[in-house]
Amino acid sequence: MPWTASQFSLADFYFSDTDSPLVPPPEYLDWRRDTAWATSLYEPVLCDPAAPTNHLQTATGSQRVINMTSYGYLGLVRHPDVLAAAREALDTFGTGACGSPILSGKSILHQRLEQQMAALTGRDAVLIFNSGFGGALGSAAGLMRKGDVAIVDARAHISLVDGIKVGGARTVFFDHNSAASLDEALTKTAGSRRLIFVDGLYSMDGDMADLPRLLDVAEAHRVGMFVDEAHSILCCGPTGGGVIEHFGVRDRVGLQYGTFSKGFSAVGGFAAASRDVIEYLRFYANPYGFTCALPPVVVAGLSAALDVMTREPERRDALWDNAAYFRRELQAMGVDTGTSTSYIVPIVVGDDRTLLYEMGRTLRDHGLFVTPVDYPTVPLDQARFRASVTTLHTRADLDAALQILADVFVPVMRAKGRVRSRA
Ligand SMILES: Cc1ncc(COP(=O)(O)O)c(C=O)c1O
Hey, how many other C-beta atoms are within 10 angstroms of the C-beta on 416? Predict the structure, then answer.
């Protein structure tokens, strides 16, 4: 009998008893085959650059969709000034950096970006990584050692969790954003060398770390904090300095991490901290020293993106206005948007994972591109679609997306009693 998408999850196939790691569990392959209709919602091919509306490749041609999956929150991916700077760097520096920064050096473009990021974050020094995930993993692994304890928010990004494992430290999770649970975790682990890990803005929930309250607890226990601002750098805070800037807690946070794939619309990551911390990570964060530096063409685009955001801060305001509008309208329809307060807006389905995939297909067929997010990425009873709003979405785009949800999602959820009735 064929298996259904919701009968299992990725959590079921982590361990395998096959003879070789190169032989994946046969049940996994059967499950993937039987549920291809559901998993085909992932990794669609886009026929055009990520934008508020896109064309997805189909078996017979292409389908126009409203794209609410892009991380390019500030719409910089094809900004003319960014493209001009990248083109010039391509002509001058070519396609790649041709070596690790430590052994082969870095370009003056890398040096300028480090200085700009130090200014944006208000820190002494910055390391630039060629991957957001790799930099987060490397920064965590570079700091945490066997015998240490990482105190990690239960919803923190997997790059941090993986990095802590690589470093050899033990992980103790605390309940998402709960100062009381953090206090309990710190009390239980007293006596160990510890560091707290949180995201600035949570990638699946769209809520901000409650930094003021979490820092009060951290400081009472004299434990430092690492904040991953992948989704918040450039988008949050009056000058784009992230959730740390939003809350005005810069001097209370030991290390600010962030990526260049989201607000910046490119690729890469950075760690910003005191000069001493950065000098240590330079040689202990392996994804810095043992890999090629970011291509100068990308670095030039990142610097230009920073310059654009200095000249056009209204792009940030437009993002927040769009986010508030979309969330408010969804909530008015009775849709559960979880704890979101930002441009990342969960559309929560709940524990009916079959419905998640069926609805994902229906929404896609009606022209709305939102991705299903299933367990174990989110809790079993909180399967959802993640919608992200960008500066470039027009009200017409958002209204069209809302209309599709009103037509096909809300009636089904209402029938299941999962939507609040209109007042
Ligand atoms: C909190 C967080 N950290 C790190 C990453 C990895 O960043 P990148 O996609 O730039 O590799 C992500 C990606 O979504 C993230 O959400």
Answer: 12
